[in-house]
Amino acid sequence: MAEELRISRRPSLNEPVLITAFRGWNDGGQGASLAGGYLAKVWRAARFAEIEPESFFDFQATRPQVSLVDGLSRRIDWPDNAFYHARIPGTDRDAVLLLGIEPNLRWRTFTDLVVSLSAELGVELAVTLGSLLADVPHTRPSPVTGSASDQALVESMGLQASRYEGPTGIVGVLHDACRRSGIASVSLWAAVPHYVSLAPSPRAAHALCVRLGELLEVDIETGELSEAAETYSEQVSEAVASDADTQAYVEELEQRSDAVDEVTDAELPSGDSLAAELTRFLREREADGESDTPREQP
């Protein structure tokens, strides 16, 4: 294995599924990273490997963080992409969690490392978690779309065929690497209200965990996320109430959401339509000069 992949120990796993969540472009409202971190917590995942950051990050773009230890000594925390393993509660199956930050450099090498380790561990299914900004209200459950490029997965797991074309990020490159290596992969995306994009969204994290549980046919304990989602909704509602225009806009979104709930599943918004929302948002940001950094899409 390449020197950039540091393995402290090699766990013995049974039918492992790889679950990834990256902070950055594909993490609107931190929904994906919150979900990944929550799974690691409730499943009591143990760290066993990490990818050396030196070769994959531009530290002027993704800067290391300085923190104080015991209020005295200074510590440098570098951008981290680490692997954890855990037994999925209530099953005989294991999970491999890859939690970290979208790298700036050498994406093909990075994803080859991920896929090579996955193959070595016996992973046959990879699931990526993502969250994107969309025209959805904070007072309703976050819509989640699931897609796959493999038709057999689409049919067996109740997913949609991915037809997205456009800019992509590390998640898209990872799915391509999985395809080339013969590892089946699924992409899950939760929609986050774009008008509170800077606030962490436990509602999106909750929705991702619920959909993941359905996908894997396991029960995932989400009580803590559910409580956090209610608190999140109350706090955002208080902030929205202070501005009449924003409140009117949210009410309009609520009406749209309720109308969607009344139609059949075949008429629900597709992953492609959510991707189009994100593409529109990013173009508006670029036009305003806010950022020219790519962000992940399905």
How would you describe this structure in keywords?
298 residues; alpha/beta; Rossmann fold; nine-stranded mixed sheet; two-stranded antiparallel sheet; 8 helices; disordered C terminus
What does this 3D model show about the protein?
By secondary structure, the chain is an alpha/beta fold. The protein has a single domain, classed as Rossmann fold, CATH 3.40.50. The protein contains 8 helices and 11 strands. The strands form 2 sheets. Strands 1-3-6-7-2-8-11-9-10 form a 9-stranded mixed sheet, sandwiched between helices. A two-stranded antiparallel ribbon has the order 4-5. Helix 3 links the parallel strand 9 and strand 10. It is globular. It starts with a strand and ends in an 11-residue tail after the last helix. The C terminus is likely disordered.
In short:
The protein has a single domain (5-261, 269-287), classed as PAC-like subunit (Rossmann fold), CATH 3.40.50.10900. The protein is 38% helix and 23% strand.
Estimate the mean pLDDT confidence: 86
The string of secondary-structure elements, in order, is EEHEEEEEHEEHEHEHHHH
Q: What shape does the CA trace take?
A: globular
Widest β-sheet, arrangement of strands: 1-3-6-7-2-8-11-9-10
- Name the beta content range: 15-25%
Rg value: 19 Å
Number of helices: 8
Main β-sheet description: 9 strands, mixed
Number of strands: 11
- The CATH superfamily is PAC-like subunit
CATH fold naming: Rossmann fold
The CATH architecture assignment turns out to be 3-Layer(aba) Sandwich
Just give the CATH class: Alpha Beta
State the helical fraction.
25-40%
Number of individual domains: 1
Oligomer: single chain
Which residues form runs of ≥5 with pLDDT under 50? 263-271, 290-298
- Helix/strand-derived class? alpha/beta
